[in-house]
Amino acid sequence: MGLANGIHHLAVATRDIKAQIDFFSDVLGMELVALYWMHNVEGTWHGFLKLNDSSYLAFVQNEQIAGIPRQLGVTHAGSGAAPVAGGAMQHVALNVDSLDELLALRDRIRSRGVNVFGPLDHGLCHSIYFAGPEDLTLEIATSQRAIDARAWIDPEVVKLAGISPDELDGYRRPAAFAGQGGAIPQPPIDPEKPHQRGIPQAIYQAILGMKDEEVTARMSESTPPVRVAD
Fold this sequence. Notes:
The protein has helices spanning 17-26, 63-66, 99-111, 149-152, 155-160, 165-172, 201-209, 212-219; strands at 9-13, 31-37, 45-52, 55-61, 92-95, 117-121, 126-132, 136-142. The protein is an alpha/beta fold. Among the domains are: 7-68, 2,3-Dihydroxybiphenyl 1,2-Dioxygenase, domain 1 (Roll), CATH 3.10.180; 74-145, 2,3-Dihydroxybiphenyl 1,2-Dioxygenase, domain 1. It has a four-stranded mixed sheet. The protein has a four-stranded mixed sheet with strand order 5-8-7-6, covered by helices on one side. The radius of gyration is 21 Å and the shape is globular.
């Protein structure tokens, strides 16, 4: 209880949300399920393409994004093996359930005139690789079994990363935690901890100073843009 169990959505910035929707709908067969004004973000569109009923690929478009240049090695990696700034998305790997489905999707991608190579056998998965609009680096992967940490945690890399044996044991077996039904209060602002730097500090601190119930009440927008009859 209280553990993340998948990716609900991965949000990607775009200058042209229509081009991204067209690509992922036509080339990969993903269904558009939401396209609306992004909540609490003026002048911004938000689109969701369905992977399954609890997992989506999302895109965000506004005028500011159009003015930010793409630069390989800074904003975008350009390939699944190239560097990019820390914290930036390096590539998107989408899942299929079998090698047969991987090959079928490769056929679909190629039928749309998009170049794709693979599958490559990585031992822990088989993967194919291709590009999407705006220099997206894309991968489709399938694993036939769960990853066996005994075989795939390399002692040499563990040492080079500065991970001690005790730390490794803790990473492999994270401590259990019993939630208190959401009763733990907001901690004091610690500048040494990660913070959202894109929100003006005065607003950010004001949000953190509110009670959780007030944040939910004041900032939520749960009504869909289109009324659907029952």
